[in-house]
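Researcher: Please predict.
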Amino acid sequence: MVSQAGGVLLVETARKAGLDQAISTALTPWRRPRAVHDPGKVLLDVVLAVALGGDCPADVGMLRAEPGVFGPVASDPTVSRLIDTLAAAGPKALTAIRSARAAAREHVWDVAKNAAPDAGGQVVVDLDGVLVLAHSEKQDATATWKKTFGHHPLMAFVDHGSGGSGEPVAGLLRPGNAGSNTAADHITTTQLALAQLPKKYRRGRQTLIRTDSGGGTHEFVAWLAQRGRWLSYSVGMTITDATHQAVLKVPATAWTAAVEPGGGAQLRFTDADGLRLTAFATNTTGIPIAALELRHRTRARAEDRIRAARATGLRNLPLHDTAQNQIWLEVVQIALDLLAWMPMLALTGKTRRWEPRRLRLRLFSAAAAAAAQIVTTARRWHLRFARQWPWTDVITEALRRLEALPDPG
């Protein structure tokens, strides 16, 4: 009898994406002579634990308890030593990990084909800040603009559109007092995000950078405009109260109803006469303003990605040093990658939009409510899921789709 049996979906996704091989190769410089455990496998086990709901390195223990599903898993001290070693290596280790992610992402998008997030031939990247609370003294944990205490990382997510979820492509760890409108951080995060995309999306305006008013600074917009041949952008701009009041003096006959995205918007205390005024900067031409405005408003899906990140290891940063927590932030992003890639490759219809909590309850931890068994047939091990579990067919069909995919070269 095994628990977390559905986690085999994530194991198989990592294998079909080539992520296991890529991380193992990338972390070869940090493998000690005569080491028993491969650093890539150790890090990937932490990733799997986070994807399954863990929120600290010690949660690899739930994988260690099921070697039939996850293989041999390193001890907690070994995991901690690896994180410390990678943190001490600084940018070199981060570059290695990110390169492995980028290689796996390109392979997944190529294999996923119609499910890849390039609707209309364009990839949309949303930038947004995330407040992560700290409940103890940690390096760079400070008071935040919301009068809480913690960190303020800046994230970038690829939007899969209404038919899917999304995946992270950058995470810049920052102190809690980092500004929402810091242009340098937005530029760095955008550069990290672009490095994660396949090369064909880095030219010909095949990538749209989208932000709320946090990115609405002259410096960041000027930086984007200088790269206008390669990038499209849609950046929210802040409207002052004076501007708001002046615009409201325009006669009612001059107004045109905005396109609704499927529901009304919650009014803010700064709204006047039931009207919301917004402004954004874009270099997209030849498209009606209503369509551009609707395109910009759909960046609200980034909030869904942030909710998924909080449910996947970003509720808190479990380590003390900033360098250690930057490694943790990379772990969280890889976990979110797997949680996005598995539905892309193996699920269809509404199940492709399931968020992490639902995936865990219905697919990954299916054995918690309906026991799964490891059985041996012809000297081969097989997982047998309980027939009465309502989503057993979803699990087995997803495994079939993953098995049918070509192995990475």
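Model: The mean pLDDT is 88.
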